[in-house]
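Data deposition worksheet. Section B asks for the primary sequence of the deposited chain exactly as it was used as input, without tags or linkers unless they were present during the calculation. Section C holds the resulting structure in token form. Section D is free text for depositor observations; keep each observation to a single sentence. Incomplete worksheets are returned to the depositor.
Section A, Depositor: J.P.
Section B:
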Amino acid sequence: MLLQEAIQTYHDLLTDQLAQDSQAQLDDQLRRRGLFFGDRPLCTVLRPRFFTPRQYRFLRSRVRLILGAFDKAYRAAIADPQILDQFQLEGWEKELVRHDPGFRSPTPVSRLDAFFITNRDELRFTEYNAEVPAAGAYGDAFAEVFYGLPVMREFMRHYEVINLPTRHLVMHALMDAYEQWRGRREMPNLIILDWQEVPTYSEFRLFLDYFHSQGLDCVIADPREMEYRDGKLYAGKFQVDLIYKRVLITELVENGGLDHPVIQAVRDNAVCMVNPFRCKILYKKTSLAVLSDERNQALFDTEELRAIDDHIPWTRTVEERHTVHRGKPVDLIPYVLNYKDRFVL
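Section C:
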């Protein structure tokens, strides 16, 4: 198999000396670029994960179907209160998701987490991070780091290696949302919003440098420094048009309530925020239950239903009800109790 041969070639190249040299360079690059999650190095291995072009095409085709299904579930929830109830939002969340963000997608920037067993194309999604997905800029930085390692130089004598850059896609998602919200194309004043002490702060700097390189006026801002006055939102003296939200909405509400300056400004349509309040709908783990529940099959087409069955774990909210598992009707709570070793609560 091509992939296994490539991996074996990479491993064979890691002689004691080349491995030592590559590790030393990797450690140096981690320090130079600040690639740490808090105090923990973000990478502790000498080989990146490889995919063949065919596997990448497979992943793209499957992700496209699953994202389409999530979008249909979201549209149905906005239109039908009974479907929205399946997502089990808190009262304050229901209040916030009533706000129309001014652009189509509730999740312009998102990340699907999955296990992918490459030797048999088995793909299982475990989470849809639809609110504040991290790692895009980290991934770009690590691609640059690995391209420069001595072992990669030797490996590329045998194989073509192509990375999958992300930062420009995040920027395009932000700008597309802002253009829809604003009604015209222009360069906004952008902030990256999160607490200063979060362990992912180093990634904000990577995004900041990239946004600056693309001509965007951008600062990193802490929610505690935000002010909303005279219909305008400020981070210090910096007037804000667009928020790249990395702080969790729950944390904003817990620390500032629904009167937090950011929440007020967004609800007044004084600023554009990505991702918007409505991302909360799909961010809930219950979104997996909505997709996999037989009650909602009419929302999806045949291809989407097949993809859901193949890639989304069978998920249910624990409640008194009858449902279907592996094609058989079951009484949910007794069934879960009888087979509790098969399920994760």
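Section D:
The domain at 166-274 is CATH 3.40.50.1760 (Rossmann fold).
The two ends are 38 Å apart (CA to CA).
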